[in-house]
Specification:
The protein is of the alpha/beta class. It has one domain: Hypothetical Protein Aq_1857, Chain: A, CATH 2.60.300.12. It is about 20% helix and about 30% strand. The chain is built from three helices and seven strands; from the N terminus they run E-H-E-E-E-E-H-E-E-H. The strands form two sheets. It has a four-stranded mixed β-sheet with strand order 3-2-5-4. The protein has a three-stranded mixed β-sheet with strand order 1-6-7. A hairpin with a 3-residue loop joins strand 6 and strand 7. The protein starts with a strand and ends with a helix.
């Protein structure tokens, strides 16, 4: 699993959330109850300065971008590219994730030990 954040995506997120060096951002999947997993272009992100057991993090432009353990089910072992598009805003791409398939990348019991 890799988390890749382009320069333009990082700058757009910093501006949108009013971030400064030392702040953090959590990425998470948006899933509607009763629908299959959709690794589409629109997923969630929010300011989160204190990650909760992050499974991966990337430091870029002084910001700690991360995915918390609770969101491992969505991201699984898939690569995630986060980019910025003038019309769509921040977009997510999962080049190796077939829709409808996801899995946690860490065994929960092992993680707690």
């Amino acid at each position: 699993m890799r988390l890749i954040i382009t320069d333009s995506a990082s700058q757009a997120i910093i501006k949108e959330l009013g971030l400064t060096a030392g702040n953090g951002v959590r990425f998470f999947g948006i899933q509607k109850p009763g629908q299959k997993v959709d690794h589409g272009h629109k997923q969630g992100y929010e300011r989160d300065d204190q990650g909760d057991r992050p499974i991966i993090h990337v430091k870029k432009d002084g910001i700690d971008y991360h995915i918390n353990f609770e969101d491992a089910w969505f991201f699984g072992s898939h690569d995630c590219l986060i980019d910025y598009d003038e019309e769509e805003g921040v977009i997510f791409t999962f080049p190796d994730a077939p829709d409808g398939i996801s899995s946690a990348s860490i065994d929960y019991d092992r993680f707690l030990q």
